[in-house]
Amino acid sequence: MSQRDELVREIRALSDAEAVRALTVLVEDRGLLSSAEQMALPDGELGEALTAAGVEPGGGAGQGDVARAALEYAALSGDGVVGEAVEYVRSPMERFDPVSVSVGVLAVTLLQTEVVVKRDRRGRWSVTVRKRALKDAALARVLTALLSHLTDSK
Hints:
two-stranded antiparallel ribbon
């Protein structure tokens, strides 16, 4: 089993809380947490923007599912920090992670090189997805999990 396969297995084994914390750690490591905290993007509007961009929801997805999909996407993209984030959240030491950013905003922030979220003059949000052949399947899993989470598979 390759290191990447092992990392994907570890990501899939994370609890929901661990997955969200690991995603937060990854976004923070990239220096993007402050911009995620400042993004005033309500989950409902993000869901509408994803639907307008042609993203279809998958099966029911919770916050942990979205976070695991985003972490797996980053791992498959070769981001070496993902393994460190997974190891950090699974370590037994006590920590205080006072982040109040939705998992949707964290996922979109992590994907900002692949997904552009912007607001028009009327205040409506739009999502533009830039696809690359190698990453399409992993990116699609993140976006469908995110939309499923935001719409509760409605």
